[in-house]
């Protein structure tokens, strides 16, 4: 698999870990509005070398999560805003246009400096 996006978590909003309890990971690039940043894992924004796709994978903390669904605007949001909502439920249909769904256990924590990758 080739890496289509790679970044590092550099800030964690005060409520970002709460989303993990709901089996969600919400990301945004650095420079997010303060009210949004509060709920996100903030990362250094980089270039994307392709679109998110079913059959691809997300890597986080050394664990690989197969992608099972991709919302209609998820790739665009990632490319333009560094924003994506990852659902750890393995659903075959994206719940929202900006969400992606993966198979695997929800992380209990995502420490600063963690690497997030999307592969295809």
Automatic annotation (TrEMBL):
One GO cellular component term: cytoplasm
Residue numbers of Phosphohistidine PTMs: 43
One of the GO biological process terms: phosphoenolpyruvate-dependent sugar phosphotransferase system
Single annotated GO MF: protein-N(PI)-phosphohistidine-sugar phosphotransferase activity
NCBIfam families: PRK10377.1
Name of this chain's protein: PTS system glucitol/sorbitol-specific transporter subunit IIA
Annotated organism of origin: Chania multitudinisentens RB-25
């Amino acid at each position: 698999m080739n890496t289509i996006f790679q970044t590092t978590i550099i800030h964690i909003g005060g409520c970002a870990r709460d989303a993990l309890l709901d089996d969600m990971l919400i990301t945004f690039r650095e420079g997010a509005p303060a009210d949004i940043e509060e709920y996100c894992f903030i990362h250094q924004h980089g270039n994307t070398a392709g679109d998110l796709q079913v059959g691809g994978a997300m890597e986080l903390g050394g664990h690989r999560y197969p992608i099972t669904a991709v919302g209609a605007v998820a790739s665009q949001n990632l490319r333009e805003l560094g924003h994506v909502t990852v659902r750890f439920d393995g659903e075959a249909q994206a719940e929202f246009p900006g969400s992606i769904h993966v198979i695997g256990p929800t992380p209990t924590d995502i420490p600063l400096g963690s690497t997030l990758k999307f592969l295809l």
